Amino acid sequence: MENLINMESLEHLKENLDNVLSDLPANYLLGAGAAAWLLSTGLKSAGKDKAATFVETLSVPLLSIGLYHKITELSNKKESAAEGI
To answer: Which of 10, 25, 41, 68 has a 20 to 30 Å separation from 76 between CA atoms?
Structure first.
């Protein structure tokens, strides 16, 4: 059986994710992650534990991807400002 997870396929996955997510502003991803976290909190307080757990699992990747994009945007701005000096 063929090993489907290798470094070459992971590089293509990273490129595809960067292409898709580069169009979205980091603030949208951070907002979606925060909204998912708040929704999961509301669902948990309403007694919908399974739905709250599912929505909560979505909030962590959204927040981390949004934070990653925010950091890369800031570093790109610093690099472009340093080149302009």
So the answer is: 10
Token pair in block for residue 34: 């925060």
Distance CA 73, CA 64 (A): 14
pTM across the whole model: 0.67
Per the structure block, which two tokens stand in for 29? 């991803």
* Distance set, CA 68 to CA 1, 24, 77, 79 (Å): 35, 12, 14, 16
Side-chain half-sphere CA neighbours of 29 within 13 A: 19
Q: What is the mean pLDDT of residues 1-19?
A: 68
DSSP H helices in the chain: 7-21, 26-45, 49-83
Residue whose token pair is 């509301």: 42
Count other Cβ atoms within 10 Å, centred on residue 70: 15
